[in-house]
Design brief:
With 419 residues, the protein is α+β, with helices and mostly antiparallel strands. Helices cover 55% and strands 16% of the residues. The protein has 2 domains: 7-63 and 285-417, no CATH class; 77-272, no CATH class. The protein is elongated and about 105 Å long. The two termini are 46 Å apart.
C-alpha cells in the first residue's frame, strides 16, 4: 500500500532537522555569532515597535484622562510673528478672566466649561515643619475644572459656588502633597502656600507619571482667590469645553470659535488671535507622528536585518567550502542535488529562527522598558512577533539559497578530492 505524501515527507524533514542541528552544534562559535547577529536585528525591530506601542497606549490613556471630546481655548503666542502681524492683532495676547467668563455665560452648546489659570509655579509649600521641594504649581480653577479634566476625588469635596465667587482660602491638593501630613487626615488641615494659609477641603486621585502626572504636584484654589491674590487681570486664563453627551463636537467647536471671536471683539476681517483645538485633533496629530516614527523604526530595523542577512549568507558560503568533502560523500552515497540544497536551506532556516526567537524575547523586554518607565501595562506585541518570525524566515531563505544552490551543484568526484 502506497503511503500518503505527507508521511513520506516527515522522515526527510526529521533528517534535515537533525543534520542542521548537528551542523549548528559542530560549529558552536560561528553559529552563536550568526544567531546573535540576527537576534540583534530582530531585537531592534521588535523592541522599537513595542516601545512605540507603549507610547501610543500612554498617549491615548493620557488624552482619555484629560477628558474625552474636549475643546480648548488658550492664548496664541506671537513669538515669531512679523511686526505687521503683531500690529493687526486687536487684543493683548493673554486671555482675561472677563473674556473667559463672558464666553462661558453666552456659549450656546450645553456643556461643562472649565476656566483656569496657572497662578504660581515652582513654589515651596509647607505644613508645620514639613516642606515640599520648590516644584509645586498653584492653579486657579472653577468647579467644572475637575469633571472636565476627568479628575476624581479620593476624599473631600469640590469648591462651592460661594467659595469660588467669594475668594475663599480653601484648596484641593494632588496626591504628591500627602507626604506632608504623615498619617494625619489632610482634609481640614491648613497648608502654608506662598505665605498664606489655605484649608484643605479635597484630595485628588493620583494620575501617575504619564502626561497627566503633573496634577499630583498641584494645588487648586478657587479662581476668585487666584485673581485677588495673584494678579487679577494680568493672569492668562484658558477655557476647556466638554460638550454634553449627544452633542455634535464639530458643531460645538465651530460655535466656540465664533463666540470667542465675538468676546475678543474681532471683525470678520481680523485674524483669529487665540488658539482653539479639539482633543480628537490633537490625538490624531499625535498618532500621525507615531505612524511616521513607526515607519522610520521599521526601515532602521530592516537595515539592521540586511546586515544580518549578508552575515548569514557569508557564514553559509564558508560552511559550504568547509564541508565540501562531506557533500561529496553524501552525493556518493546517493543523496540528490535537491536533498543537499534542502539540507543547507534548512540549516539557514534553523539558524535564522533561533536568532529570531532570541531577538523577539529581547525585543519585548527592551520595548517594555518604556512601559515600565511610563507605568503602563506590559505589552505582548503579537503582530510584531509574527512579523519577526516571518522576516527571519524570509531572510534565512534569501541568505541560504545561494550557498545551498552552490552546494547542490558540486561534482561528487571533485568534492571527494577537495583538500
Amino acid at each position: 500500500m502506497k503511503r500518503p505524501s505527507f508521511l513520506r515527507f516527515f522522515p526527510l524533514f526529521r533528517e534535515n532537522l537533525n543534520v542542521s542541528l548537528t551542523a549548528v552544534k559542530t560549529n558552536k562559535l560561528r553559529s552563536i555569532l550568526t544567531i546573535l547577529m540576527i537576534a540583534i536585528g530582530i531585537m531592534a525591530l521588535v523592541g522599537i515597535l513595542t516601545a512605540i506601542d507603549a507610547i501610543k497606549g500612554s498617549v491615548t490613556d493620557s488624552f482619555n484622562q484629560m477628558g474625552a471630546s474636549t475643546i480648548t481655548i488658550k492664548a496664541k503666542s506671537l513669538r515669531g510673528e512679523s511686526s505687521e502681524s503683531r500690529r493687526r492683532v486687536r487684543n493683548q495676547p493673554h486671555i482675561t478672566y472677563k473674556q473667559a467668563a463672558a464666553f462661558a455665560e453666552h456659549y450656546p452648546t450645553p456643556s461643562k466649561i472649565a476656566i483656569y489659570t496657572t497662578a504660581r509655579a515652582m513654589l515651596e509649600v509647607s505644613y508645620g515643619s514639613e516642606k515640599t521641594n520648590p516644584e509645586i504649581t498653584v492653579m486657579g480653577v472653577n468647579p467644572d475644572y475637575f469633571p472636565v479634566h476627568a479628575l476624581d476625588f479620593v476624599s473631600g469635596r469640590n469648591f462651592s459656588q460661594f467659595e469660588t465667587s467669594s475668594s475663599g482660602f480653601v484648596a484641593i491638593i494632588g496626591d504628591g502633597l500627602l507626604h506632608l501630613f504623615g498619617k494625619k487626615e489632610p482634609v481640614g488641615e491648613f497648608l502654608n502656600v506662598d505665605g498664606r494659609r489655605y484649608q484643605v477641603i479635597g484630595i485628588l486621585r493620583s494620575k501617575g507619571a504619564a502626561f497627566g502626572g503633573g496634577v499630583d504636584k498641584q494645588i487648586f484654589i478657587p479662581i476668585g482667590n487666584a485673581r485677588s491674590t495673584y494678579g487679577g487681570e494680568s493672569l492668562n486664563f484658558q477655557v476647556k469645553i466638554q460638550p454634553n453627551i449627544g452633542e455634535n463636537t464639530r458643531q460645538a467647536y465651530e460655535e466656540a470659535e465664533i463666540y470667542f471671536r465675538n468676546v475678543r471683539r474681532l471683525s470678520p476681517t481680523d485674524q483669529t488671535d487665540f488658539q482653539i483645538e479639539r482633543s480628537e485633533d490633537m490625538l490624531e496629530r499625535s498618532m500621525e507622528t507615531m505612524r511616521i516614527v513607526t515607519i522610520v523604526a521599521v526601515i532602521i530595523g530592516f537595515i539592521t536585518l540586511l546586515g544580518a542577512a549578508v552575515g548569514l549568507m557569508n557564514i553559509m558560503l564558508v560552511s559550504v567550502n568547509e564541508r565540501t568533502r562531506e557533500i561529496g560523500t553524501r552525493k556518493a552515497m546517493g543523496a540528490s542535488s535537491q536533498v543537499i540544497k534542502q539540507q543547507f536551506l534548512f540549516e539557514a532556516i534553523v539558524i535564522g529562527q533561533l536568532g529570531g526567537l532570541g531577538g523577539i524575547v529581547l525585543g519585548i523586554l527592551a520595548g517594555n522598558l518604556t512601559s515600565i518607565g511610563m507605568k503602563t501595562a506590559f505589552i505582548v506585541p503579537w503582530l510584531w512577533m509574527l512579523l519577526g518570525v516571518t522576516v527571519c524566515f524570509v531572510v534565512s531563505i534569501l541568505s541560504g539559497y545561494l550557498p545551498a544552490l552552490r552546494a547542490s551543484k558540486l561534482d561528487p568526484i571533485e568534492a571527494l578530492r577537495y583538500e
